Structure formats: structure tokens, C-alpha cells
Amino acid sequence: MRRPDGGVESFPSGHAAKAFAAATYVHRRHGWDSARPWYAAGAYVGWTRVNANRHRWGDIAGSLALAGASSWWLVEPLADKGISVLPVIAPGHASLTIQARW
Q1: 9 lies in a domain?
Q2: In which domain, by residue range, is 58 found?
Q3: Does any domain span residue 41?
């Protein structure tokens, strides 16, 4: 698909994909409340690309979908803070694993 400015690579918007990748990373890692400003920034980047006649809104939506899917797949939510203790008992072996998150 041709870009509005006549270019040949319209889909997706790289600028918007990077902005939405940051937003979905924060969303996945820290939750929706922390990610709202990042999504707003991503939407602003998308708007600037459309307003500059460099992309269409479908390109921006595609960027959100691709960045969101990859971040959702690759990023694990941050576990709760705290300490966990796991005893390990095996034949001829006993140990204690302690893990802390802060």
C-alpha cells in the first residue's frame, strides 16, 4: 500500500510502533495505571504521523497491534515484592533456596 505522501512502505509506522512498544511494555510489566501516559504518548505519535501526511490511521492501528502482541508475548509481569523460601530435598542432597524481590 502506498503512503499518503507517495512513499511505498506505508504499513506499519515505525515511529508509532516504537512508542506503542514502550507503552505495552509498561502495561505488561507494571499494570494499566502506569501505562496510561505511555499510551497517550503513543497516540500522540500516531496522530503526528497522520497529521504530517506520512501514514494512515490503519498504519497506526497496525503498529499498535504488532507492538502490543510482541510486548505481551515477550514481557513477563513483575512479580509481587517479597521473600520466598523453597526447601529442596533429594537423595543425598538437601538445600534451601531463598529469593527476594524489591
Answers
A1: no
A2: 14-101
A3: yes
The residues near 58 (Cβ < 8 Å, ≥ 6 apart) are: 11
CA-based angle 60:66:72, to the nearest 5?
125
Total domain count, the chain? 1
The reply to whether 2 falls in a domain is no
CB 70: neighbour CB atoms within 10 A? 15
- Residue ranges in the chain whose pLDDT is less than 70: 1, 8-10, 80-81, 102
CA-CA distance, 47 to 20, in Å (whole number)? Answer: 13
**Global pTM?**
0.69
The predicted-structure confidence for 43-70, as pLDDT tens digits, reads as follows 999 999 999 988 889 999 999 999 999 9
